[in-house]
Amino acid sequence: MAASLVGGAAIGAVFGELLKKGLETIDKARNYGSALEDQIETFQNLGPVIKDIEKFNEQLDRPRQEVEGLIREMSEMEELIGKCPKPKANKPWRVLSFPIYNDKLKARDKKLVRSVTVDLQLRMARDLQDVLFKVGNILESLSKHSYGPKIQGLYGAPEKPEFTVGLDEPLENLKTELLKPGVSVHILTGLGGSGKSTLAKKLCWDDKVKGKFGNNIFFVTVSQTPNLMIIVQTLFENCGLSKPEFCNVDEAIDKVGILLRAIGRSPILLVLDDVWPGSESLIENFKCEIQCYKILVTSRVAFPRFDTHCHLKPLGHEDAEKLFCRFAKVEGSNLVSEVVRGCKGSPLALKVIGGSLCGEESESEAWQEMKKSLQSHSILDANDDLLTRLQNSLDLLEHKSPVESSMKVPYKECFKDLGLFPEDQRIPVASLIDMWTELYNLDDDGTKAMFIVKKLANRNLANVIVTKNRDANNSGEYKYYNYHFVTQHDLIRELAIYLSKEGTFEERKRLIIDEISRPHWWIVENPQGITARILSFFPKWFIGQRQQRVVARTMSISTDENFTSDWCSMQADKTEVLVLNIRSKTYAFPEFMKKMSKLRVLIVTNYGFHLSEINNFELLSFLPNLKRIRLEKVSVPCLCRLNNLKKLSFYMCNTSQAFDSCSIEISSALPNLEEMNIDYCIDLEKLPAGICKITSLKKLSITNCHRFKVVPQEIGELGNLKELRLSSCSDLEEMPDSIGNLHNLRLFDISDCISLTNLPEKLGELINLEKLCMKGCSRCELPDSVENLQQLKCVVCDEDTFTNWEPFKAMLPKLEVKVLKADINLHWLPGVLKRQMG
């Protein structure tokens, strides 16, 4: 029994094992078809890839055994697939061999998987490391070699400047901006010869800059006619790569982006040196979305498209003397200091003049002649090379956009007009608007004139100063430029004057008489043949002349307290603009002004300590074409008849005599006046009722008159008034109801009238009012009638005043309320004090 049981169990175990093997065989036979299909698909997919790998290995000259094992595996797979029987319904006996081939297929698959997932992956990782190693060698090679004058990478800025002065502070400022996160384009601008390129080279060699950008520093000299494709080719060459050929500029732009991203694992600094106007697109082409990629642009022009600017200023006297002495190879002395002052802080002038005196004894005749030349003439007379190089700055004005070309703006003429004003003084933009509107037929609101000013400023031919942040940078339709001024570097002003001296004195189109501060002895002969030696502050032609004819269209005459009113009988019947720069307690208009029949603009500015008394004012009544008068820091005399005057401006004037003591009615004296500006006139307490009878008046501005407190009821008679400005009149407490009669009023400005507590209910009758400025009027209550101002588009106010407007916003669908941040500073004060104190 026991034996039989044991035997039965053994037989059962064997049978069970046979049954298990039989089931596995049947299962292998069943799965054989799909396994064979998988192997065939794998072979078809891997075959082309293996062939490509083999081809690239041949091109890269890599050893063939790297892929021989994989190729052998693929061959054996192909051979096995060829031997495997194909399942067919009409040959069922083949199923007996399926399990054998199924095992072979699986074994082959397992071996192939290991080759692909392990061996091939390891080789790929090794190849990547090899590529990184070779790229590192290329970068290291670039850091040790120079590849041409245009672009040099990896500390490849041109040789480090040996000697610099006055650049430490601008270097620190520029470096601070450059190392900040964010903005990718930085503009370094200044006059020609001011040291921009020198500063850029010095920056590239700075330890902090090198520490930040490492080997990724590139320096490009762009120049006037840049070729983008050549620049990009050189960049490739400097990176140790073959120089590519481009079919067009677009391809070059694409490739430089690829290159920059390839080397952009570390921070990159690209310096574009000497970029000319019109090259903004070139800068844009080098911009790339890479983390910590900076572009530094040096240019004689500022590019408004890019906001970050660093402006190089003239050298101070101490630094200027150091630079001059190096090039002149002399020690400092009083004579050296005098010559240095004549160079106006221009590094270019200091190098050129210093180099011309190198080798001469410091007390020699050459030095004495240079000193006299710089004192009595323009520095431009002393050196032709300096003149030529500065004149190149004017060539920048010839680069015009299509819009500028259509405007036909005479930029060079406008630049020369800046020489009509004294040295080291602010030029009011309002004066330029008056001049250019009449001379060049510009629009009357000053928009185009300001466009010209900005163009000159962008070309570093002028500087713009705004003494107050008015109305969000004068945005919108109604412009006001009484707080805008222009200044010029002395050397650039001399260039403007120099260019105005072309031709003989009598034939010049722009006549500038500014030698009155230097008395001259002249030998003159009268009609009887008697000679005399005469001391005069005017040129020789002024002395002993019965009549001097000139054809100048614009004329500037500067006088000081030494002037004796000894005018000659000049005939200037072609003159359209007369600028009188005075510095004396009393001043008499010259008699020859009576015959200036074409005079359209008169600008009188007193630069003295006290207000100047004006005599002979009645001469102006003889000028039939006089359209605009601007008086600054004078006591305005009684007004005479000015029948055709369109605009009258008083700035820092005493107006009491003009408004209170005249026998003639103001409305009769100014019957066709369209614009009146009264600014910083501290004696003005009330608006004369006579002004309200000038029905032609369209613009009235009374600003910064802190004693002004009364607006008369008669103001409602100004039916044509479109703009009324009463800003910064701190004593003004109320507005009359009659203001509601100004149905044509578009702009009303009461900003900073801090004593104004309410506005009249009839304010709502200003049916055409579009803009209301009331910054600094938080105490001023708004009448309910404000809801009737349906044409009101813009209210400019501060945060405190904004709360007064919130209830009305829903009632005025066109209204936009602009909230200005507080602008608390005294930047404007030095200029005002300087003018008040001379």
Q: Could you characterize the architecture of this molecule?
A:
The protein is of the alpha/beta class and 838 residues long. The protein has 5 domains: 16-129, no CATH class; 151-311, Rossmann fold, CATH 3.40.50.300; 317-390, Orthogonal Bundle (Helicase, Ruva Protein, domain 3); 406-491, Arc Repressor Mutant, subunit A; 674-821 and 832-838, Leucine-rich repeat, LRR (right-handed beta-alpha superhelix) (Alpha-Beta Horseshoe). The chain contains 25 helices and 29 strands. The strands form 6 sheets. Strands 10-14-16-18-20-22-23-24-25-26-27-28-29 form a 13-stranded parallel β-sheet. Strands 1-3-4-5-2-6 form a 6-stranded mixed β-sheet, sandwiched between helices. A hairpin with a 5-residue loop joins strand 11 and strand 12 (531-536). The longest helix is centred in the first third of the chain and has 58 residues, at 2-59. The chain is flat. The termini are far apart. 34% of the residues are buried. Residues 1-26, 89-96, 139-156 and 825-838 have low confidence and may be disordered.
CATH class of the largest domain equals Alpha Beta
Give the CATH topology of the largest domain.
Answer: Rossmann fold
Q: How would a textbook summarize the main sheet?
A: 13 strands, parallel
If classified by CATH, what would the architecture of the largest domain be? 3-Layer(aba) Sandwich
Instruction: Record the strand order, biggest sheet.
Output: 10-14-16-18-20-22-23-24-25-26-27-28-29
Task: Annotate the secondary structure layout.
Elements: H1 2-59, H2 65-83, H3 98-144, E1 151-153, H4 168-179, E2 185-189, H5 196-204, H6 207-213, E3 217-223, H7 228-238, H8 249-262, E4 268-275, H9 280-285, E5 293-299, E6 309-311, H10 317-328, H11 334-342, H12 347-357, H13 365-376, H14 379-382, H15 384-395, H16 402-407, H17 411-417, E7 427-428, H18 429-440, H19 447-458, E8 463-466, H20 471-474, E9 484-487, H21 490-500, E10 510-513, E11 520-525, E12 531-536, E13 548-549, E14 554-558, E15 570-571, E16 577-582, E17 586-588, E18 601-606, E19 612-615, E20 628-632, E21 634-635, E22 647-651, H22 656-660, H23 666-669, E23 675-679, E24 699-703, E25 723-725, E26 747-749, E27 771-773, E28 794-797, H24 799-805, E29 816-819, H25 829-837
Parallel strand pairs: 2-5, 2-6, 3-4, 4-5, 10-14, 13-15, 14-16, 16-18, 17-19, 18-20, 19-21, 20-22, 22-23, 23-24, 24-25, 25-26, 26-27, 27-28, 28-29
Antiparallel strand pairs: 1-3, 7-9, 8-9, 11-12
